[in-house]
Design goal:
The chain is of the alpha+beta class and about 110 residues long. The chain has 3 helices and 6 strands. It has one domain: Phosphatidylinositol 3-kinase Catalytic Subunit, Chain A, domain 1 (Ubiquitin-like (UB roll), Roll), CATH 3.10.20.
Amino acid sequence: MTTDEKAAVVEEGLEARGAHEDVHVTVDYLPATQPFGRAYPATTMVETVRTDAMAFFGVRDRQERDTYRYFLELSGNRLTNTEQTLEQILGPHRRGAHFHLVEQITPGMIGR
């Protein structure tokens, strides 16, 4: 086995191991006194984290007269593609992340 082949095998092993390592996630929500915290595999989709955090805080997306929608923010950026994995948004070597759960209220039409 050449040096390049050995390096490729070691690199492959590191990539495979990274997918199984947990990412320690915390999510805060302004009205709550305690944050949500849990470890997820790096392959977990952002939507799973969002759904779990919403259940923890007792909130849900809903439409009454107004529309209430919850988003995760990371470093001031709203995550709109919730089909991405934690590894895709954080990178392969990051083992923790702190999100904010943010509520967006869109006013409904009055006088329909």
